[in-house]
Amino acid sequence: MSNRYWPMFDIQLSTPELELRHLTEADLASLSNVIPDDAEQNPSSTTYAGLDARQNRGAVVHQDYWRARGSWRPESWALSFGVFRDGDLLGYQGLEGDDFVKLRTVDSSSFLAAPVRGRGWGKQMRAAVLALAFGPLGARFAITSAWSDNHASLGASRRLGYVDNGITVQQRDGQAGEMVHLRLSRETWMASG
Ligand SMILES: CC(C)(COP(=O)(O)OP(=O)(O)OC[C@H]1O[C@@H](n2cnc3c(N)ncnc32)[C@H](O)[C@@H]1OP(=O)(O)O)[C@@H](O)C(=O)NCCC(=O)NCCS
Predict the structure, then answer these.
(1) Closest Cα partner for 130 from 101, 154, 107?
(2) Structural domain range at position 43
(3) What spacing in Å lies between the alpha carbon of 176 and ligand 1's midpoint?
(4) Is residue 54 domain-resident?
């Protein structure tokens, strides 16, 4: 273990084609360069008048990262992985457990740079964190949500065994949008091999 005080920095996951390692502050500028325009950020994030759209998104990347580390507790935690191939940072895979000790449920979020999509890597990186969640962390359920027209995200989830868990109507760019919720049980994950 190289990080005596924050051992989460040592977590590394491998898939057949990707490496996931926990992000550190040194990765945040690269992640800010990579985040695609269609990766949603919290709509209530601060917007800085002096920054252009890309700089603002990068600032939110930094703030989200710091917030997740600063509020980390064993009961409610968030892990933030960079997705690498041959040393290049291609995307992000998050995994979080809110009130995890009681609920044993994890949620996830992710993005890949547009040029490297459609190769099954979105599925691989999600499978990596699911293996962590259902393996050593002992999760019972994994949940995820995406807008009804986000076919790649919903496709990756469904291919991994998630099933429909309801739809909610939420505000989307000032309109009503349909958010599709999906859930994967430990039993289904284990049976999938
Ligand atoms: C979500 C994201 C990470 C998925 O990565 P990806 O590389 O596009 O997806 P994959 O190639 O791993 O595809 C996963 C599965 O979904 C299927 N899929 C992908 N696009 C699809 C589409 N438009 N319609 C139906 N199925 C689709 C694929 O066929 C694949 O299944 P298979 O391997 O069995 O063929 C990526 O699209 C992304 O970064 N999107 C923008 C950010 C985002 O929306 N994040 C999620 C927010 S909830």
Answers:
(1) 107
(2) 11-192
(3) 23
(4) yes
The CATH code of the domain that includes 44 is: 3.40.630.30
Residue 39: inside a domain, yes or no? yes
Q: Does ligand 1 lie within 6 Å of residue 153's CB atom?
A: yes
Within-domain flag for 5: no
pLDDT of 132-189, one tens digit each? 999 999 999 999 999 999 999 999 999 999 999 999 999 998 999 999 999 999 999 9
Instruction: Report how far apart the first and last C-alpha atoms of the chain are (Å, whole number).
Output: 29
User: Which of 39, 60, 38, 62 has the alpha carbon at shortest distance from 48?
Assistant: 60
* Number of domain units in the chain: 1
Is 182 within 8 Å of 143 (Cβ atoms)? yes
Q: Which of 83, 93, 108, 111 to mutate to test the pocket of ligand 1 (most atoms within 8 A of CB)?
A: 111
